[in-house]
Amino acid sequence: MKRVISIFVAVIAVLLSTLFAPAALSQNPAAAATPANAATWKINCPGVRNVPMTADPEQALPLQLVSNLKCGEEVEVLDNTEGYTAKIKTADGKIGFVAVMYLKKSVTPRRAPAIESANVENGIARWQQGAPGCDHFMSNGIVVESLTANGITVQVSLHDTGWKLRANVGIANNASQPVHVQPSQFILDELGAHGKPLFYQDPAELAKNVTHQVLWTESIAAPLNSTPRASNLTATTVDYRYSVAPSVSTQNYLLQHQNAEEDAVRNKGKETLVNPARQILALALKSSTIAPGDKVAGAVWFERGKNPGQLILRVPLGDQTFEFPLSFRQK
Fold first, then answer.
1. 3-class secondary structure, 289
2. What is the side-by-side strand order in the sheet with 103-105?
3. Mean pLDDT, the chain, integer
4. In sequence order, which residues have a C-beta less than 8 Å from that of residue 25 and are 6 or more positions away?
5. For 118, which DSSP code?
6. 173 near 152, Cβ under 8 Å?
7. Rounded to whole angstroms, what are the CA distances from 311 to 89, 305, 326?
């Protein structure tokens, strides 16, 4: 009989512990599990030195102070359904309530997806359609070639102004070391039996000649052996704007420069460009050093052959050179 009673008592104890354990856990916030997907927030201090965290959501007086939180301190929001206050957890594990007005969501920047590196042979990375690290896309109706090698991405488009050739070049440094950019060392070669080097043109010298508008485009080059989807982009059509989204692996580093260039033309007009020297110098790619995580973009001008056809643009950066094959459709 005693054995039956002891078994019965044990069963009752197990049942009672099962029933009341969750309630006890809920009454102990420190023991409650932290939501795995809780957002990270920061303490925002508009006009105050620190923010009180209290044990009660009402923050009744006198304050049941848990801690004074510092401005910018990261916290985890556990519950934001109380209205005036939110239940939070600090980095050192303290749990309490703080006025919602003192919370600001901390947005963690998303990492750019890793891009496969192109093959580099003898210090040269060559753009080849479909090859690793190589891509091309349409940006504002313009064909852009993109080439990534060892963490550095170079994107180019080539324009025929009818007077000079203009390369729009964007460079992003996602490597661990700074990279130096010297546009005067960029090389543009015309291919074929009568091919020749097309020499770099100093934008300061171009800016002195106000009779030619070096920002205008008569035609756009496309990747070699491909058909351009947008050729003969003239002054009458330069004001239309659309973008075809690049591939998942490629960010568009030229778009902002393209928009600035088009705005300079559209807002002033072909025959009434004001301060052309200042515009040309402002849009030109500058000699600079790109820190890791930074990017630059701008225009680089070259001589123009009689009938631009197939060309190679070479962009030396550090100990490697980025090489782009480009082609104008023959009229």
1. strand
2. 65-70, 50-54, 95-99, 85-90, 74-79, 40-43, 103-105
3. 77
4. 31, 32
5. P
6. yes
7. 61, 10, 5
Q: In a 3-state reduction of DSSP, which class is residue 61?
A: coil
* Per-residue model confidence (pLDDT) at position 224: 63
Question: For the segment 188-223, what is each residue's pLDDT rounded down to a tens digit?
Answer: 999 887 789 999 999 988 887 755 567 777 667 767
Q: Tell me the per-residue pLDDT of 70-83, one tens digit each, with 9 for 90 and over.
A: 888 999 999 988 68
Closest to 167 (Cα-Cα) out of 324, 20, 299 = 299
Q: Are 139 and 255 in contact (CB under 8 A)?
A: yes
Those residues with Cβ within 8 angstroms of residue 29's Cβ, 6 or more apart along the chain or in another chain: 78, 87, 95
Instruction: Give the domains, in start order, of the chain with CATH numbers.
Output: 32-108 (2.30.30.40), 120-327 (no CATH)
Using DSSP's 3-state secondary structure scheme, residue 123 falls into coil
Are residues 298 and 286 in contact, defined by beta-carbon separation less than 8 angstroms?
yes
Q: What gap in Å lies between CA 92 and CA 74, rounded to an integer?
A: 10
Determine the residue type at 61. L
Pick from 288, 311, 294, 151: which is nearest to 222 by CA?
311
